[in-house]
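Example 3.2
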Amino acid sequence: MWTLALMFLAAACLFSLGVALWVICSHFFIMHIPAAVGHPVKLRVLHCIFQLLVTWGMIFEKLRICPMPQFVCFMQDLQLLKYDPDVVVTDLRFGTIPVKLYQPKASSCTLKPGIVYYHGGGGAIGSLKTHHGICSHLCKESDSVVLAVGYRKLPKYKFPVPIRDCLVATIHFLKSLHAYGVDPARVVVCGDSLGGEIATVVCQKLVNTPDLPRIRAQILIYATFQVLDIQTPSFQQRKNIPMLNWSFTSYCFYHFLDISPSWHEVIMKGAHLPTKVWEKYRKWLGPENIPERFKRGYRQKPHEPVNEAAYLELSVVLDVMCSPLIAEDDIVSQLPEACIVSCEYDILRDSSLLYKKRLEDLGVPVTWHHVEDGFHGVLNTLDMKFLYFPSSTRILNMLTHFIKGL
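Structure, written as tokens:
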């Protein structure tokens, strides 16, 4: 009995060691760490930890123990939350939607700005806990009331459920601003990664709602605004850079939109959409909309003839809740001013550049902050001690400055 137990334990240890070695070796063989990041060892460690969680998650998913996103979220949420004595945090529910409310502890008779925050994670990972530090810092540094929305996500809930959850929570908040001491003229929507896209969609949905306070501004941090074209310069240049590489991007893309991965080659060739669609949106998606300095080494590839079967299944990418960049002019032109943060070493970088130009062309004021040494997800390192990156503080300071200026 004991012999079998010891043998099983030894086998488990060897297998775990093998998984760790596989993750480390694949990282060094596949991942590219740019010298400009400034802390290459930190980035390697951070990515290996994340990739180890994803790899174990995929193993458990193959064994039908639990889906990968569920395992990664479970491990991420094990972290102990650090509470700032100057910030009051309250867990609430708007109907069935969990939210966290962050309020400055110091009492004040004046109304404060309100920030609705939507976390990132590709619809697969991320939670109220993973973004607790960001929301707490935003609350304290900008002297604002922050509401973080815990929307439903993978594996059970796919597009557009997370967006609907966030829209419902935002409307609930807008209808009860007085209860939280928020100035109706200074409500901001904010999000990182998928959360940035959600913030954009919420703004677009609430453009023509005169019965609600108007959104004052939108803060969009390394967000994704379109999923039609995945052959932009940043997709070619940054596909093997932590923290968001092409492997994890594609997993989120296919699972979140409920698209079969068997269409991968068709999508890569641009054959999932007909010529008339590419021509219609070229004025917003074409590489000529991206500044030349971001196109080093870029090779534009012609789109192959449409695969009709793929087009029928993948037409969801044309939904403006999925690709808010292609919303009509009469909607985009009415959007509030935007603060856009892009990172140089991010596979989604060009999405921010394209949306920035779209807004500017329609006269929407844009404050743009490009982090030359930044990578996707860097803001989450704010409270990571050894794995902290200085660019996270620069982003926070810029966001704080923008909010105080409203």
